[in-house]
Amino acid sequence: MPVTAQAQHGPDPSSPQAGAADDSHRVPRRADFPAGFRWGCSTSAYQVEGAVAEDGRGESIWDRFCATPGNIRDASSGDFACDHYHRWPADLDLARDLGLNAYRFSIAWPRIFPQGRGALNPKGLDFYSRLVDGMLERGLEPWPTLYHWDLPQALESRGGWAERDTVAAFVEFADAVARRLGDRVKHWITHNEPWCTVMHGHLEGVHAPGRKDLATALQVSHHVLLSHGLAVDAIRARVPGARAGIALSLHPLRSASASPEDRAAMTRHDGIRNRWFLDPLHGRGYPRDAWERFGAAVPAVRAGDLEAIAAPTDFLGVNYYFPEIVANAPGEGALETRIVPPEAVERTAFGWEVSPEGMVALLERVTRDYRPARILVTENGSTYDDVVTADGRIDDEQRRRYLVRHLAAARQAIAAGVPLEGYFAWSLLDNFEWAEGYGRRFGLVHVDFGTQKRTLKLSGKWFRAFLHGRDPA
Ligand code: IFM
Fold first, then answer.
1. pLDDT tens, 276-301?
2. Which one, of 467, 365, 380, lies nearest residue 423 by Cα?
3. Among 42, 47, 193, which residue has the most ligand 1 atoms within 8 Å of its CB, making it the best to mutate?
4. pTM of the model
5. Residue 433 CA: which ligand 1 atom is closest?
6. What is the pLDDT of residues 230-241, one digit of tens each?
7. Number of domains the chain contains
8. How many CA atoms lie within 13 A of 6 on its CB side?
9. Active-site residue, selected from the candidate residues 59, 193, 324, 353
């Protein structure tokens, strides 16, 4: 049964008329959130850095994937991106001026080990060391992610994440980075969105390395999760007092109808979309329903692997964008499910449903079912077709509303008992949006990719006023 926009969204805290009588829909203020709450923006190395051939960086699977015609919508690549490798001081100034107290970025593995393992490239570590110092000088707590999808191509050529050896290589990489940055970095995210690594990269083939095989994808999922658990131990061994976790892309689900068939399909989809990652990370092993469905495609799991994956973590990162509607689809894939486009709901330019309610429901569900010690929304954001006015402004009112409503949702989740300790907007800058190239802008800061000029958008101005405690309405 399609859900109408009105029924989905209720009162709108971003509207000037937001009900004064009903506090839960009031425009959020920073003072509504606990002291010590992390306010950040997220970026990732390949999406912003550029400089792919500088200072000894090796080739990554994304360099190779982008070079293959047809893989990227606008035939672009991350070769230059936001040129953040050279412009990082000004970019960190922007983050500071917004009023952030945390900054999430990722470490490009091919800058540290150009061949994946073996010879370490000191210049790569020097870059991130300078970057971390730059954050600390500006009052930004560093939140690095070790793997945001840019596997060294040399490892892919030896089988990539489908090979167990890549797990050991990742742990060496984590150890090298922790050894160099651990005196200043206390929060560590091992992987970003393993679901995307697994499914986009190895089943659908729409992300690097572009493979399309279910058994490979599931083996990759196991190795990625195993590498997470072992890296958590390696980081802890190197960094006294380190806090480590993982960032998962999770989705609240609805069934396309109230029929038992669609409801069962929703449960099956949950088995791969959410539980395939959440369950083993929380010591439950792989979900039995999904495991049985996958039959001969299930991954090889060795004794001790599940215990390693379930290494205790200090926080769970939740990347939230949109809910999914699931229908029964006999004969379609191993799970016989289909994602149905939502009807009569507000959507971003990507077609993703705008549902702050979905974020509350998701955070409550994760809290109820898995009891993580802390949760941070490590990504949340929206893409719209931004227009630059004649006098150079970007009045992205839709993105501003999206942000306001999701901050109101974050406040609501805390009130409902979710141990939410931070919110990172995706993204600080417009950047390279993977297979979509540069056509999808998510930034609070507009980037002119011709001149590299940065301009704070209306949404960014709103966030700045919010973070400085001014009445941003
Ligand atoms: O740009 C991506 C990011 O790399 C991972 N999470 C989702 C974002 C928007 O698609």
1. 999 999 999 999 999 999 999 999 99
2. 380
3. 193
4. 0.96
5. 1
6. 999 999 999 999
7. 1
8. 0
9. 193
